[in-house]
Structures are given as C-alpha cells and as structure tokens.
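Entry 14. Ran structure prediction on the chain below.
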Amino acid sequence: MFNYEKRIKLKFKMLAAFYDLFDLAFLLDKKRNPRYALARKIPDEALRILDVCSGTANSSIVVAQANVRNEIICIDLSPDMTAVAHSKARKRNIRNIFIQPMNAIDMSFRDGEFDIVTISFALHEMDYEMMLKVLRQTCRVLKDGGKLYIIDYDREDGWFKKLLLSMHLKTFERKHMAQFLKYDWAKTLKDVGFQFISSEKYLFSKLITATKRSINS
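Output, structure tokens:
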C-alpha cells in the first residue's frame, strides 16, 4: 500500500503540470469524448456526486458546468493534482466543486452518502486486488440504487488511433494494461455489490454504467 501511494504521488508530481494535454486527444473526435457523455447521463438536479481519484478534475469540471445544481466532491491522493484542480475550478469560477486530498482505499465518508460516484481514468493505475478495494469503498459510500460511472481505457479501431493509444500506454501507463483491457466488468462489479448496466465505446475509452444493488435485492 505504501509503495502504491509513493508511486502515485511521485508519478503525478511529475505529470500534474501537463496532465491535461492528454485531453487534447479527444479533439480528434469531440462527439466521442467520454467526459461529455458522462455529463449528459447525469441530470441537473440536487445530487451529491463523488469523483474518486479525480486528478485535475477534468470530468468534474465538465459535469459541474453542465449541471449547476449538482454538488461534486473531488478526492485524489496526489496533492499536486488537487492543486491543479483547485486552480482550474477557481479560474472558471465554478462554485459547485469541492476538492480535498483523500485516499480512495480508505474514504472518510459515511455509508450511503452519495447519489452518484464517478471514476475517470484511474482504475487502470491499480492492480486488481487494490481496484476491488476501491470499488468496495465506492459501493459503501453510495446510496442503494445509486449510479456508478467509470471512464477508462478501451481498445481502439483503426491503425492510426491504435498507434496513438499504444504509444501513450507504453510511455505513461503500467505494464498490466493488456490485462486491464480484458477485464470482465460485469463480473467484477457484481463481486463488489453493483449491477452492471452498460458499457459504451468512446474515443480511446469506454463509459461503464452500474447501479448499487440494495441489501434486499
């Protein structure tokens, strides 16, 4: 666990300043940007949303700007990434985002505190057992029937996009990415208390939707 924290903090200390350049890839096909797809799925209602491993808050900012009635709590292990997130939210005068450092494997929130949980481009950083621990924590803090949305890498069609994705993964991501891309998400989510709903393909990524099963279901 210590090695994971140390690795993540060191990695994103180096990447925080230019991490947002990753999103420039979505300009290749704006209609297939998973962050905007996520925002379209969330209604503009008085919902309490937790963004786990929020990084520089790219997904949260898109959702917050589209849905001003949402209250979004962002947590991330890296102080350098949360500092960038704070700066971006302040510059955009976004008032419905609240950012705090927190380890997703040991959240301090109460059981059933959130209506929605989102996790964007974070689970691939973890080995399988650690990912399960984070997902169990996610399930704990989500209300019965609450929605979980996961954005993360997916295979790409076409030689040029395949090449771009392969170069990025080999340069910046962990060696277990080939295994990660083969996970059975329906089974994995069921094992930690969720009902898998759908997986939608977007550029270099997929958007997974699941619902927390109630105790009586």
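The chain has one domain: 2-212. Will compare against last week's run tomorrow.
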